[in-house]
Here is the input.
Amino acid sequence: MLDRSRGHGFSLVELLIVVTILGIIAAIAVPSYQDSVRKSRRADATSTLLKIQILQERWRLTNGSYTANLSDLGLGSTTPEGYYDLTINSASASAFTATATATGDQANDTGCTVFTITQDGPGGGCWN
Here is the structure.
């Protein structure tokens, strides 16, 4: 019979099994976590573009046309959190197009690296 009265540590094989299981779990969990973080960062682009749409309408009401300059709207060239670069691609008396383009790690957000809005509202794609 085995004497279990004395404390014994883990064997090397048991330890290697635990480390292997943890490695497999981490290999699955980390990419999933990163994907979730990227999805949550999309709000940085969408909320800023909606703000641009509101500010463009206010600008047009005062000046008779949309502006092609973000500084006229009191905005910089990046979103508040810095995950997207902002541009106003075109602006006229009756239309504008603004774009948020992912930068840094956010550029790895598969299929959702560019968001667009016009005077009529958001474009398709990842807005949904």
In short: The first strand starts at residue 84 and ends at 91. Helices lie at 12-63. The mean pLDDT is 90.
